[in-house]
């Protein structure tokens, strides 16, 4: 058995027919109901899935978002505690927190027995911690790699506010183990589900390497360009298509020109059609300095596009099985990433084989699989 | 959950809590189970027929928590943990079973985490991290139990995948067992013997079909340190315990044999030599002869079964102790145990035989060939490099042989013997010595007291000494705060000092008392008495009178004490702050940098102050040769020996160093001045750099690239301090200059000053047709008829702090094959060091301590390297070069990568094995001819600007204004 399997697959008592999971009240509590970002996408995806399973879902945000995200039609209620931004930290903030926490308490008290509160961001936990969660199961989540969290102020807040929740969830076993090493004995993990499973994979006929991500330091496009400078001379008929926009666009384009790569790099801008972008490529490159459980990799694999990636987070080595359905390079070693890309670009057969295996292997994160694991966890925490 | 529910369901987990006469703590232990985050847990208390109220307490708990707690009592006391735990197993109803002792507690999430692991992986056995909590320590000290086994979650199909688990974590209590597994395998604790955990855990590990380890803390082992020290009457019990331990080991060995796991026995043997035996050996010097004999008899019996191959897997001193114990060689064993306890101490006279160094002369020729081979293998300590150390770097054993005190006179007469390994103290040496008394507590070491050593003379293999110490008059402790005084003997051998401690562990040797007069008067204490430290060293204690002690105790804990301590700490903090890095950097910027720049002031540094070498040295010497009028400052790290006497020497990071840098007109160095120091605009920074690049450097390295944009800019500011950067060829421009993102105008295409000497040497050689050997050859004792080869490998990073560099070839074999033709100089990177055996003396010479490599290059008739940048410099000489790239793939690919493929461009044979190397070395002359063109091409490509005039050219460009008229 591997680490990818459900934590409760082998439950004793599984010898009889599995009893239907009870229908529960599930609360998602985030910084905002609809701020632009991965956590929002994730929580509404999960909220829809839980609703589909017959659970009663309620999504709660602490404040209105600064940059909102379009959610479309949603089949469950949402609540935002503050009408505007909360007061700055201090006495006024504390007083307001107590007040808003009573709203949370009222929501929680109206729930049926067996209800679950999923706190998706540690900032939101500061409010939940002040509410009465007696009788409810509280789960706190860290939606990024341990290392990335460690480099931010969230590290101390996670250790403080998630210390006593019923379960703290990281994205991978490896991240959870690192949290445990910091004394978070309630830590475990659950991976993100695949955002979509396209019917038709990429044909992998276009001689193009695709990168999708914000043009921001974290995504390491500067290192991708250095990498490309080593690969491009060997493959004059190939192109590098960089999707995304962001604050570093100008610096990166300058770097591209300085490296003499203008002839083989296409700046594609931001796209809302990720499958379309992937369909136009045969290899996917991920050059990030840090990640959590990168959706971009999962999407590429679901499209049957093999990846060459920096091994920058446990989530990356969890998703990509190095040498089987993609290739990894030591973080920051552009020479190595260049060799990985070269390997994939030079060998069509290898590319096809890895692409097909990627598409098959990524199924372990299908929504059904992940929702089952969540329901299993709810039951386990009640025992 | 309703507690009654538990009555009708099978609980997930049963925790068996055993208790014997521990009524006070039982409730805490049981509560730690009832308060688990996982609710489906029951407690099974088994009382080992306590004589206190433990069973009543257990029954009370059962009554208060019906269905969750049950209490049982053995009919008679079993005297161990085995019988009550077995009863617990029999009574348990849960799917899983855990064991808890009444004085310990479970972590709140322990059951939930172990259960999740067990259900996820289907393991028979889940094990988690145990933490030893020292309950009466001030800071609540916690020590993790073998944490390296529990850094991450992992599942083993068999314990043979991780032998360390069976070997080290022998506890039964930090584990969760599937109850059906215990039943299937009939697992029970042995009864009537101590160390039952060792056997039980070994059985469980061996039988489990799958084992999952989790990094979670699951079990708090609460340790009480203040338990009374073992008294003499306990010695009998100690021997009995040891016998039990050996018996358990034997049973575990049998179990492993039966289970078909002989490879685990080997790991266990290694651990036995490294840990179990050491634990007992350390006590030996403090015990009397009869104890030692009894102990040895038991230990020898077991040692017979230890695999001889295990001796090779432990540190030399472990193997030596075990071997000498087996041979009952007490004379050599007791000193060896001293080294076991005091690791850096040299406690044996040692002996050199057939070019190797051995722990002792005995046993080397004992018995048959096989026995002899074993003795020589075990006792060989050549690798430890004792023979390469000068006397001042040795920590010598000094055993006290006489102690006599005259209480009335207040004097103590001491005598002892200092080990003289390999005769490091020559017979004719002038010997003097003194005994030094210093307070053990650091903060109160205001004064040390010294007493002369009366006689010192060679006596057999040791230096015998005698001294008479007038403690009553000569030693003046303050009193109360400085109760313990350590004694050291400082021995001067021809004026060179070596410091020893006095070993006095022999029972009954150092006893008595002498009067003493503390400065706080005799009211606080009136006498001093000898004692022996845990490491076996003689010390003295000035016992404070009981009344004073109580009074002081109250004062220290009361308000005045707090105030005094707070004041002291504050003073210390201020001092620390003033001497801290950040403060110094502030002083540099805010004070020194406001002073005017001093004309003619040049600060030189080479390799962060570690050496007087390289281009800064060559440039400095050229400036002296031309008799320029300037102020030279050289920076050194560590010790100033070897730095030029005609310059001002400043220690790196000292205030004078910072002042000099702030006021200098020129900075000259080959690596980097402290990153945080801003260079003033009026200061010119000549960065000579220290070698052309094969390996990727700077922003071409992963580590640099990975940094955030802000950190990269910070780094760039440091590099932008360079006003001039020396260049040897256009290769440097393409690699170093690009990797450091240097501007074209900073590049100075003049070559390296350090290489001027090499170019000159080659010219001289071509003109005269002869190769001159300078005084260095004579200094190294190289005969005229031998050619000189230099082996200069690059730095290799080894995990951890280990700086020993293993030579990739057998030097003894080299000496054998080539010793009559070549002298091999070995120069390891300054961060690594090598040890050469005495057998190769005169044929292989360690020259790592030479600051400057250039004279060595000039001396060598051939160079052997791998990827070191000396290849670019040595090529200038036009002499043969050999590239011993035994780990090329690993170095190039796993490491940071190279700018070109050495195998294509090397101007000499690139060999992968020792054999290939020896074949290539067979003829220097052939290599001279064969690679002539390749070498010329190599020089043209990588050293085109090295024309022998670098230093002069730099002087002309920058320092000509200082020429004297």
From TrEMBL, chain A:
<keyword id="KW-0808">Transferase</keyword>
<dbReference type="Pfam" id="PF13439">
    <property type="entry name" value="Glyco_transf_4"/>
</dbReference>
<dbReference type="Pfam" id="PF00534">
    <property type="entry name" value="Glycos_transf_1"/>
</dbReference>
<feature type="domain" description="Glycosyltransferase subfamily 4-like N-terminal">
    <location>
        <begin position="37"/>
        <end position="192"/>
    </location>
</feature>
<keyword id="KW-0328">Glycosyltransferase</keyword>
<protein>
    <recommendedName>
        <fullName>D-inositol 3-phosphate glycosyltransferase</fullName>
    </recommendedName>
</protein>
<dbReference type="InterPro" id="IPR001296">
    <property type="entry name" value="Glyco_trans_1"/>
</dbReference>
<dbReference type="InterPro" id="IPR028098">
    <property type="entry name" value="Glyco_trans_4-like_N"/>
</dbReference>
<feature type="domain" description="Glycosyl transferase family 1">
    <location>
        <begin position="202"/>
        <end position="359"/>
    </location>
</feature>
<dbReference type="GO" id="GO:0016757">
    <property type="term" value="F:glycosyltransferase activity"/>
</dbReference>
């Amino acid at each position: 058995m591997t680490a990818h399997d459900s934590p409760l697959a082998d439950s004793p008592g599984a010898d009889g027919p599995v009893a239907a999971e009870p229908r529960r009240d599930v609360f998602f509590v985030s910084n905002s109901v609809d701020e632009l970002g991965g956590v929002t996408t994730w929580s509404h995806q999960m909220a829809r899935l839980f609703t589909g399973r017959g659970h009663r879902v309620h999504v709660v945000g602490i404040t209105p978002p600064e940059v909102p995200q379009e959610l479309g039609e949603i089949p469950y209620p949402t609540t935002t505690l503050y009408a505007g931004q909360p007061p700055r930290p201090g006495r006024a903030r504390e007083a307001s927190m107590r007040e808003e926490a009573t709203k949370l308490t009222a929501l929680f008290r109206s729930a049926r027995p067996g209800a679950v509160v999923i706190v998706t961001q540690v900032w939101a936990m500061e409010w939940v911690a002040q509410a009465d969660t007696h009788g409810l199961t509280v789960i706190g989540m860290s939606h990024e790699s341990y290392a990335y969290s460690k480099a931010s102020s969230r590290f101390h807040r996670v250790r403080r506010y998630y210390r006593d929740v019923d379960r703290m969830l990281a994205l991978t076993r490896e991240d959870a183990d690192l949290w445990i090493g910091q004394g978070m004995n309630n830590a475990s993990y659950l991976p993100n589900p695949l955002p979509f499973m396209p019917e038709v994979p990429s044909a992998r006929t276009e001689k193009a390497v695709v990168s999708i991500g914000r043009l921001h330091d974290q995504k390491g496009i500067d290192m991708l360009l250095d990498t490309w400078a080593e690969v491009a001379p060997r493959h004059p008929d190939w192109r590098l298509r960089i999707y995304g926009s962001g604050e570093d666009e100008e610096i990166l384009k300058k770097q591209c020109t300085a490296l003499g790569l203008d002839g083989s790099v296409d700046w594609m801008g931001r796209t809302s059609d990720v499958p379309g972008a992937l369909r136009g490529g045969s290899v996917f490159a991920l050059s990030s300095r840090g990640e959590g459980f990168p959706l971009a990799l999962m999407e590429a694999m679901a499209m049957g596009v093999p990846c060459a990636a920096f091994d920058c987070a446990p989530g990356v080595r969890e998703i990509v099985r190095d040498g089987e359905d993609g290739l990894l390079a030591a973080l920051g070693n552009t020479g190595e990433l260049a060799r990985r890309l070269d390997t994939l670009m030079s060998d069509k057969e290898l590319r096809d084989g890895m692409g097909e295996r990627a598409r098959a292997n990524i199924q372990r994160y299908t929504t059904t699989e992940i929702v089952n694991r969540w329901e299993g966890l709810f039951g386990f925490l009640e025992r | 959950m309703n507690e009654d529910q538990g009555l009708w369901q099978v609980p997930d987990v049963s925790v068996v809590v055993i208790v014997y006469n521990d009524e006070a703590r039982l409730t805490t232990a049981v509560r730690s189970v009832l308060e688990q985050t996982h609710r489906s847990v029951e407690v099974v208390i088994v009382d080992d027929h306590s004589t206190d109220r433990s069973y009543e307490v257990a029954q009370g708990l059962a009554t208060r928590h019906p269905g969750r707690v049950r209490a049982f009592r053995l009919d008679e006391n079993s005297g161990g943990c085995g019988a009550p735990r077995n009863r617990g197993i029999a009574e348990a109803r849960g799917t899983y079973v855990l064991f808890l002792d009444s004085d310990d507690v479970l972590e709140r999430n322990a059951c939930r985490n172990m259960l999740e692991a067990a259900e996820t992986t289907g393991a028979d056995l889940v094990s988690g991290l145990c933490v030893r909590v020292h309950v009466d320590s001030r800071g609540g000290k916690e020590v993790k139990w073998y944490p390296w086994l529990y850094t991450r979650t992992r599942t083993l199909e068999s314990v043979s995948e991780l032998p360390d688990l069976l070997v080290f974590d022998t506890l039964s209590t930090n584990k969760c067992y599937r109850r059906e597994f215990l039943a299937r395998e009939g697992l029970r604790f042995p009864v009537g013997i101590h160390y039952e955990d060792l056997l039980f855990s070994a059985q469980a590990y061996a039988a489990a079909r799958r084992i999952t380890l989790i990094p979670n803390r699951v079990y708090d082992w609460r340790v009480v340190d203040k338990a009374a020290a073992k008294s003499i009457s306990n010695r009998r019990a100690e021997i009995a315990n040891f016998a039990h331990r050996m018996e358990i080991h034997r049973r575990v060995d049998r179990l492993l044999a039966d289970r078909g796991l002989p490879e685990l026995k080997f790991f266990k043997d290694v651990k036995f030599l490294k840990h179990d035996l050491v634990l007992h050996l350390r006590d030996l010097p403090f015990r009397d002869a009869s104890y030692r004999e009894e102990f040895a008899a038991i230990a020898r019996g077991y040692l017979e079964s230890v695999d001889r191959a295990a001796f090779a897997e432990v540190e030399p001193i472990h193997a030596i102790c075990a071997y000498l114990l087996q041979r009952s060689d007490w004379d050599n064993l007791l000193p060896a145990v001293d080294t076991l306890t005091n690791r850096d101490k040299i406690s044996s006279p040692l002996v050199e035989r057939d070019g190797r160094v051995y722990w002792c002369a005995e046993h080397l020729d004992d018995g048959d060939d096989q026995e002899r081979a074993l003795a020589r293998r075990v006792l060989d300590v050549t690798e430890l490099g004792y023979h390469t150390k000068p006397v001042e770097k040795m920590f010598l054993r000094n055993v006290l042989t006489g102690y006599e005190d005259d209480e009335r006179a207040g004097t103590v007469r001491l005598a002892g013997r200092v080990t003289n390994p390999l005769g490091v103290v020559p017979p004719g040496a002038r010997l003097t010595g003194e005994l030094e008394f210093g307070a053990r507590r650091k903060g109160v070491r205001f004064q040390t007291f010294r007493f002369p050593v009366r006689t010192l003379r060679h006596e057999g293999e040791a230096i015998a000494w005698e001294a008479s110490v007038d403690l009553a008059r000569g030693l003046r402790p303050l009193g109360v705060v400085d109760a313990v005084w350590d004694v050291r003997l400082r021995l001067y051998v021809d004026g060179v000092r070596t410091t020893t401690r006095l070993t006095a562990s022999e029972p009954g040797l150092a006893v008595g008392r002498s009067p003493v007069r503390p400065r706080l008067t005799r009211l606080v204490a009136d006498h001093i008495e000898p004692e022996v430290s845990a490491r076996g060293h003689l010390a003295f204690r000035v016992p404070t009178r009981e009344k004073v002690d109580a009074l002081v105790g109250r004062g220290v804990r009361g308000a005045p004490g707090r105030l005094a301590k707070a004041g002291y700490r504050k003073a210390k903090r201020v001092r620390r702050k003033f001497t801290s890095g950040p403060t110094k950097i502030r002083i540099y910027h805010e004070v020194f940098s406001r002073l005017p720049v001093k004309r003619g002031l040049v600060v030189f540094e080479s390799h962060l102050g570690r050496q007087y070498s390289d281009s800064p040295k060559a440039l400095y010497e050229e400036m002296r040769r031309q008799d320029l009028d300037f102020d030279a400052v050289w920076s050194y790290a560590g010790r100033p020996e070897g730095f030029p006497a005609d310059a001002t020497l400043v220690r790196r990071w000292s205030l004078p160093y910072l002042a000099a840098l702030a006021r200098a007109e020129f900075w000259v160095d080959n690596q980097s001045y402290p990153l945080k120091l801003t260079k003033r605009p009026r200061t010119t920074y000549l960065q000579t750099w220290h070698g052309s690049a094969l390996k990727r450097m700077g922003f071409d390295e992963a580590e640099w690239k990975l940094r955030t944009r802000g950190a990269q800019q910070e780094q760039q500011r440091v590099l932008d301090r360079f006003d001039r950067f020396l260049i040897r060829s256009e290769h440097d421009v393409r690699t170093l200059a690009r990797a450091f993102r240097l501007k074209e105008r900073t590049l100075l295409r003049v070559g390296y000053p350090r290489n001027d000497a090499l170019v000159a040497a080659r010219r001289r050689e071509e003109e005269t047709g002869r190769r001159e050997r300078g005084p260095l050859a004579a200094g190294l004792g190289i005969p005229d008829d031998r050619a000189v080869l230099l082996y200069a490998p690059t730095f290799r990073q080894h995990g951890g702090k280990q700086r020993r560099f293993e030579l990739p070839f057998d030097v003894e074999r080299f000496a054998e094959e080539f010793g009559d033709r070549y002298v091999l100089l070995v120069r390891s990177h300054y961060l690594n060091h090598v040890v050469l055996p005495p057998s190769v003396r005169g044929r292989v010479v360690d020259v790592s301590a030479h600051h400057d490599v250039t004279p060595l290059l000039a001396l060598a008739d051939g160079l052997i390297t791998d990827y070191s940048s000396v290849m670019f410099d040595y090529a200038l000489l036009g002499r043969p070069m050999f590239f011993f790239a035994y780990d090329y793939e690993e170095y190039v690919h796993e490491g940071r990568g190279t700018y070109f493929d050495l195998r294509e461009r090397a101007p000499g044979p690139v060999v992968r094995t020792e054999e290939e190397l020896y074949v290539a070395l067979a003829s220097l002359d052939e290599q001279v001819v064969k690679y002539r063109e390749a070498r010329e091409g190599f020089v043209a490509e990588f050293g085109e600007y090295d024309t022998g005039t670098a230093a002069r050219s730099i002087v002309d460009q920058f320092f000509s204004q200082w020429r004297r008229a």
